[in-house]
Design brief:
- This protein has about 350 residues and is of the alpha/beta class.
- Helices cover about 60% and strands about 10% of the residues.
- The protein starts with a helix and ends with a strand.
């Protein structure tokens, strides 16, 4: 199962979970109204009836959620089992198995039935596990690992290859995606950050190397490495870009991430593979120390306007002169002027993502 297929499976669950959250919020509102002493008795009775009806709906949705989670897990096992049995790849295709599973599934909730129909339409648009695009990216990443091995220096290609495998497997784990959804909901209710700030995506090694090996960018990165500057990623997610910095170039790499599930997963993979000179910090990027940072990566494509403004202001005040900033958006143009380079690369959510490289003056 590929990275993109893991996202597709998670999206089926995500829609059902959102429905459950919405029902829970409506139940809480009805409960408050029911207990509100200054409301007329008729309104409180109506709130009680509404609460009872919504509770039944929520119960049905939660049962549907448990069922679809189990069905997707079964589809994953079946697709892996077929691959292990060396049957033709198309017979073991995860998306086809998931589509068949959804067709035969009968949800209890009318709302979930509508979600099922929408999911089936979406799956028909999606490329399968063995699509040419996915296979090409995978091959390109393996070739980059081979090139790193031939280049020598500070690169650790075999360790990077194992880490990339573990990260790909992580993206097929539904409990991982469930943890991300839980963290996003919790943080959006307990902080000033909107849920949109916590979208998940990943950048293949071959794409990232295209940015770092750009003739205008590479000399600056090598100078930062020589000066023993830190390579830091704001919004490091499960750690892909942080591992690239440490294992492809030999940087002392630091990831800053607010979602506990991402931090715990990245730390576990680092420990399992004995990756040194790497650190994953659980906290707000606005509290991070930039005093010795030579390369700063911003995963800002889903950040809201307020966070982008605060991050830009912090960079302008605290990032040392000469440091390199790599961003998924042109948001830093206001502070840095025109980028040193713009490079188009394929990523998990966009076949042609424009990356912007700036230098702090």
């Amino acid at each position: 199962m590929s990275m993109s297929d893991g996202h597709k499976a998670a999206s089926v669950i995500r829609s059902t979970q959102k429905l459950a959250w919405d029902l829970k919020n409506r139940i809480d509102e009805a409960k408050s109204a029911q207990k509100c002493g200054h409301l007329p008795i008729q309104e409180r009775c109506a709130a009680a009836l509404l609460r009872e009806a919504l509770t039944k709906q929520l119960n049905d949705v939660l049962i549907d959620l448990a069922e679809i989670s189990e069905l997707i897990q079964q589809a994953i096992c079946k697709s892996h089992g077929k691959e292990l049995a060396a049957l033709p790849a198309e017979e073991g295709d995860f998306i086809e198995l998931l589509e068949r599973t959804l067709v035969n599934w009968n949800p209890r909730s009318h709302d979930v039935i509508e979600l099922k129909s929408a999911a089936l339409k979406e799956l028909k648009k999606c490329p399968s596990l063995h699509s040419q695009t996915d296979a090409a990216l995978h091959v390109a990443c393996l070739r980059e690992v081979e090139r790193l091995g031939k280049r020598g220096g500070n690169a650790q290609p075999q360790k990077l290859k194992r880490v990339m495998h573990d990260l790909r497997m992580l993206e097929t784990d539904l409990s991982f995606h469930g943890g991300i959804l839980h963290d996003a909901a919790s943080l959006s209710s307990s902080t000033s950050y909107k849920k949109t700030n916590f979208a998940y995506g990943s950048t293949p090694l071959s794409s990232w190397m295209k940015v770092c090996e750009h003739p205008k960018v590479k000399p600056l990165l090598m100078q930062s490495l020589k000066d023993q500057k830190l390579y830091m990623v704001w919004g490091s997610s499960s750690g892909w870009l942080v591992f690239y910095g440490a294992l492809a170039y030999g940087f002392k790499s630091v990831g800053v991430e607010l979602m506990k599930t991402n931090v715990a997963s990245a730390r576990e993979i680092a420990e399992q593979n004995e990756v040194e000179s790497i650190e994953f910090l659980h906290g707000d990027l606005l509290d991070s120390d930039l005093s010795n940072v030579g390369v700063l990566v911003l995963t800002s494509q889903c950040w809201d306007v307020d966070l982008v403004a605060k991050a830009s202001a912090k960079i302008a005040l605290e990032l040392p002169p000469g440091a390199v900033c790599i961003d998924y958006t042109p948001a830093l143009i206001g502070s840095f002027g025109q980028p040193l380079a713009c490079i188009n690369i394929p990523v998990s959510w966009n076949k042609c993502q424009k990356m912007h490289v700036f230098v702090k003056h």
